[in-house]
């Protein structure tokens, strides 16, 4: 028993008589970490690192905090019953919102009714539907108007149940009506062995990362976990 205890201390650095710290960890943060708000989720930093957009809650309003003044603005409080799930910055200073146009129930609103919206940076603007259903979150470039998102059969009936695909497109603002152009499917999974979700662009938007969710071994298909983030095999910006 003494030998086992000594081995545990050696391997894990656990002191048998060490006492745990008391108090609130938030009162003793490292110097490079600070609290911005006491509410919110799904933060997204602006391309110029001056602001952070975030959701007040799931199926709620999109918010914005200025990192210099700490002033918080509600971006969607002019939308009655706002039920958005994500807010992300475009390089233009405008925003992409993700979510249903109204809350029905958690499953339906997160899957079948989940879609992309454009929100202008002009004060008082209201979200505009982009006519694109999509699954979960999106990847948005910090350098261009490139966007990536995924779809499953709930948003795209042409996909077989369990299948998913990753799409890359450009946000076109030239006509006054926001829309997606140059859409291209860059990866497709034929079954639920890998349900994809876009994550981020890198290498000057020539490549991107995405998550592959796999069924948990020995558990039902509804319980999935993020297994890996893989490099998309795109060769150049024009391929995207």
Secondary structure topology:
Blueprint: H1 2-12, E1 41-45, E2 51-55, E3 62-66, E4 72-74, E5 86-89, E6 95-99, H2 106-110, E7 115-119, E8 128-133, E9 135-140, E10 146-152, E11 164-172, E12 179-189, E13 195-202, E14 207-215, E15 224-231
Antiparallel strand pairs: 1-2, 2-3, 3-4, 5-6, 6-7, 7-8, 9-10, 10-11, 11-12, 13-14, 14-15
Walk me through the structure:
There is one protein chain. The protein is mainly beta and 240 residues long. It folds into two domains: 38-131; 134-240. Helices cover 7% and strands 40% of the residues. It has two helices and 15 strands. It has helices at 2-12, 106-110; strands at 41-45, 51-55, 62-66, 72-74, 86-89, 95-99, 115-119, 128-133, 135-140, 146-152, 164-172, 179-189, 195-202, 207-215, 224-231. The strands form four sheets. Strands 1-2-3-4 form a four-stranded antiparallel β-sheet, with no helix packed on it. Strands 5-6-7-8 form a four-stranded antiparallel β-sheet, with no helix packed on it. Strands 9-10-11-12 form a four-stranded antiparallel β-sheet, with no helix packed on it. Strand 9 and strand 10 form a beta hairpin. The model is unreliable at 1-12 and 218-240 (pLDDT under 50).
